[in-house]
Amino acid sequence: MNNDDWTPEEQARLNAARVEGVPPRGLEEATVGALRERGLVRPARRRLIAIAALVTLAAALVVAVGWSVTRRSVAPPESPRFVLLIYAGTSPVAGAPDIRRREYSQWARDLAAGGTPISGEELSEDAREVPAPPGAPLDGLLPSGFFVVSAPDLDAAQRIASTCPHIRYGGRIVVKRVVS
Amino acid sequence: MGDRGSGIGDRGSGSGSGERGAGSGKREAGSWELGTGNWELDDIDLIRRVAERQDEEAFRILYARHTGAVYGLLCRLTGRSSDASDLMQETWLRAVRHLALFRGQSAFRTWLTGIALNCYREWRRRHAREVSPMHAGGRAAPRRAAPNSASDDIAAINGALAGLTSEHREVIVLHDIEGYTHDEIAATLEIEAGTSKSRLSRARRMFRERWRGTR
Q1: Is the pLDDT reported for residue B123 higher than 60?
Q2: Tens digits of per-residue pLDDT, A49-72?
Q3: Residues from chain B contacting residue A21 (CB–CB below 8 Å)
Q4: What is the ipTM of this complex?
Q5: C-alpha dist (Å) from residue B52 to B48, B63, B108
Q6: What is the DSSP string of B29-58?
Q7: Is B34–A175 a contact, with Cβ atoms under 8 angstroms apart?
Q8: What is the pLDDT, as a whole number, of residue B136?
Q9: DSSP string, B154-193
Q10: Quick check: A169 and B60 in contact, CB under 8 A?
């Protein structure tokens, strides 16, 4: 070891600096746009038709299920509350974040308008673990958002969660009752 | 309050990394897990879809899986997020154009990183005479409070890197952070392996001075 070499502690800290970057939000769309211009990617027409059909069907289902859910889950203030923890699926959730964000907000607004009390927040990627574990901190999958809804029971809360657009994007939701 | 909710989960577990929390196996009593999704395709399947069918959805999944790691490397190398973004886009354009050449002999991310480094090499040729505003004057990064967390530590390292010349920064990044050998660096930067070694020695001295100034 000469004077220029790092100590083991310094090398460990340098290794820890090999972290992923957070690309700017517009980069994905800019890249996809450039690929489309060159004919390197395209949304398949057949898939678009299928998606359009699915969206129509989903909209009809959401209206129907939403009506039935809200009929059953329009809850008085003392109703149990449930946390809907938002997780990625086994692969990254598809779709542009901005579009999904708008859809999720609209979904929550629609529920609220139907009489289901709901609130929620998106969580940032920055996280701290206490006490700090040895090695890489927070190397697991963490929730990236949550909703809190009032519902008569876990089944009703599950039905509400099943209408969240996050599911359609390949994400997962864990529903847990708030103990109070 | 109902209009505030927009929590989204767009961070996957990446390729092969561990997973904790939802879906980690044991399901707690009284909890529900919905929609395991249909996103189990591996990189090879996705690449085939993009190459053969120009499947945009498959590309977006590849993008989500691999951009963060390669973009992080480009940020460290260029020292500027705007340049890293341009290079990242160029990397994807080249990668998709040449997807048919990917034989799966290495991991897709390794292949993509190789393309990114080619893009970087061309970029540095074009910008050889430019001096990054971040290291104009060659001053040490401003002294900060002692880092007390991993993210502070990373910020201190990035700050110290930003104060180096591009020649010094790239050997530190490639050798000491990314783990490349001198032969690999020589091939990437089109220099001799001996040059890489001597450059690293000088770079470490400069870097150490700036890094210690932040600790």
Answers
A1: yes
A2: 555 666 666 566 655 554 444 444
A3: 68-69, 71-75, 81, 84
A4: 0.70
A5: 6, 17, 17
A6: TT-EEE---S----HHHHHHHHHHH-BHHH
A7: yes
A8: 39
A9: HHHHHHHHHTS-HHHHHHIIIIIIS---HHHHHHHHTS-H
A10: no
